[in-house]
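seq as requested:
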Amino acid sequence: MLTDVITPAKAAFRLTNVLNQLSAIHGDVRFPVDVESLAKGCHEIFKWQDPITCVMGTDIPGFDGCLSYLGEGNGWALLYNKAVNSKGRVRFTQAHELGHYVLHRSNQAEFNCTDQDMDDWQADERRIEIEADSFAANLLMPLDDFRQQISARVDFEQLGDCATRYGVSLTAAALRWVSATDKKVVLIASNDGFMRWSYSSESARKSGAFFKARRHTIEIPSGSVAADESVVRESEGTMVPASVWFAEASRGTKLREMKIASEQYGVLTLLELPSTETVWAPWLAR
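C-alpha cells:
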C-alpha cells in the first residue's frame, strides 16, 4: 500500500497528473476522462496486485454502482446500472466506485452505492461515500481547470458548459462549484414542491444558510422562483428578498435565485447570498 495517498484529493491528483502527462505526450483529448480505461489500468499506477478486471453495465436495481471483490487472483469488478440513461451520471458513478477501490478496498470487499451516495456531499455519517464523491469530483473536474471555465458571476449556463466539458451531469458540475467557491451559495434539488437535498458552500453554512433536507421535510417557500411552476428556466438568476428563503435575513437584503426544471433533474435551484449576509436560524427550525 502507498502511504502517500491519504486524502481523496491527493489520490485523484496522482491520477490526474498521469492523465495530464499522457495528454501532453500523445495529444490525447484531456476531457472527459475515460474512467473505464483508467480503472482497468489504475493498479499499475499505484503498483497494486489486485486490479479492476471488469467494468460493466448490468442490472443492479436500487443501486447506481457497485464495486465487488471477485476473490484472490480475480481482482475487482466495477459495475454500474445500465438502466441509467445519463452518460454523465454513469461516468460519475464509475469514478465514485473507482474512488472506493483506491481509498477503501482494504476495509471491505463490496460497496453498493445509490443515487443518494452520489448527490449527498455533506452526510457526515456516511464518510466513505463522501470521500468517494470527493475523489470522483477531483478526478473528473480538476479544480485548476474548472476554475478557468468559470467567471465571477456564475450561472446555470456556465455550469452547463462545464457539465458538457467534463462529461458529467449538471448536478455534478453545480455541486463541484459549490464545494469549491468562497461565495455564499446554496444548491437545492426538489420535486413536487419539497426539497430532496441541499448543499451549501462552506461560507454559506457558517452564515446559517443551510437546510437539513435529508432529515426534515422542508417545503419550497412560496414567493420563490423555485415554487413558480410557470418558470422552467431562470439560468442567470433573478433577485428575490432573502427572507423568502431565510426568515432571519435582514430586511431589504436580496439574493440571486437561479432555477432549472427538467424531467431528468427535477428542479435545481441555486441561491447566491450577499457576502456580508448572515441568516442564522433557530437550530430546531432546520
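The first helix runs from residue 8 to 26.
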